[in-house]
Design goal:
By secondary structure, this protein is mainly α. The protein is built from 14 helices and three strands. Helix 3 crosses helix 4, helix 7 packs across helix 11 and helix 12 crosses helix 13.
């Protein structure tokens, strides 16, 4: 490198440093980012709180730097701090996704020169087993919820709705009374990614929902609200704690949480022979591959053996013989057949 090139590079570095310092700091842009998510993206309070916590963790790790100074070095420091906290790969991936969304907002919405969001690489997440309840466990869990109180009746209605509709907890808590079509047993909601979809209730779920709403004396639009003189929309965090308590009361070894009931609805449909394409629609997945990733292969060995005996047949619909075996005897042991 000659003398003139060295000077040019030094000037460019100086200009970049001045530009970075002139840019607003992360803490200054955080409120604007959260407001954008709330208004333009229509995010609910719980996701907003998570975004705030994730970016606050970034500030704690690398300092409240100008947004233009976010670099691969600072990203590496942040990742090391997350690893030092012994967080799971899934949690680290979620926190890095929050930072990537923040950078994308700064670049695409505010027009600032920032670190390329695509370069924020998340760790590979090991495939986890899907947690769900068996039919017996569902009933034990529901029966363990005391319905003599307002909170108990509300939680029973919420659990019934989650089991019946497969809603995400954020969708259930964002649900308003006017969205429910009682005659059609359905509701029109705005789900994940601001996509409109329909979800469906069972008659038992609507019965519990009706009992709970009959006990209410407020005019709050939300279906699920807190108890007290001034009702507010229910938050997911407290719901987790109560569901854990009900599971313990039911004597279940599993730690029941709201999203588990969504998994339970999907796996129950699958075990009952519902085509995976219908399950995809009911869950509101954009791609069939998402549904397959989560729910194909979740059955136990005993359930798989039962399905094998029930569904495996090479008999044609018209009843003709296939191979040398007689129609209707596909699962008879070969050594017992007359061939």
């Amino acid at each position: 490198m000659n003398h003139h090139n060295a000077i040019d590079f030094a000037k460019q570095d100086l200009k970049q440093s001045i530009s970075d310092l002139a840019a607003p700091r992360v803490s200054e842009m955080l409120p604007d980012f959260l407001d954008y998510l709330r208004v333009d993206e229509q995010r609910t309070p719980d996701p907003l709180l998570r975004y705030q916590q994730h970016l606050q963790a970034f500030i704690t790790s690398v300092g409240d730097c100008p947004v233009g100074a976010i670099s691969s070095e600072k990203l590496s420091i942040f990742k090391r701090h997350l690893l030092d906290r012994s967080l799971s790969a899934a949690t680290i991936a979620t926190m890095l996704s929050g930072l990537r969304s923040f950078l994308r907002y700064l670049r695409d919405v505010r027009g600032l020169a920032v670190y390329d969001p695509a370069k924020v690489r998340r760790p590979a997440i090991p495939k986890r087993e899907v947690d769900y309840l068996t039919k017996d466990e569902v009933q034990r869990f529901l029966d363990a919820i005391p319905t003599q109180t307002f909170a108990g009746l509300r939680d029973r209605a919420l659990a019934e709705v989650l089991c019946a509709s497969g809603m995400r907890i954020s969708e259930a808590l964002a649900l308003d009374r006017q969205q429910i079509d009682w005659e059609a047993c359905e509701a029109q909601i705005i789900g994940k990614g601001k996509k409109q979809r329909k979800l469906y209730f069972t008659h038992p779920a609507l019965d519990w929902l009706h009992q709970y709403l009959e006990m209410r004396h407020d005019d709050h639009a939300a279906v699920f609200v807190t108890q007290g003189n001034t009702s507010t929309r229910l938050r997911a965090q407290s719901t987790w704690k109560r569901f854990h308590r009900y599971a313990k009361r039911a004597g279940l070894q599993k730690m029941v949480y709201p999203h588990m009931l969504r998994h339970t609805m999907a796996t129950t449909l699958l075990a009952n022979g519902c085509p995976i394409g219908y399950i995809r629609t009911l869950l509101g997945h954009e791609h069939l591959t998402t549904t397959c990733k989560y729910y194909l292969g979740v059955m136990s060995n005993a359930e798989a053996k039962g399905a094998h005996a029930r569904y495996l047949s090479y008999t044609s619909d018209k009843g003709e013989k296939t191979d040398a075996y007689q129609t209707g005897r596909e699962n008879v042991a070969p050594w017992k057949l007359d061939v």
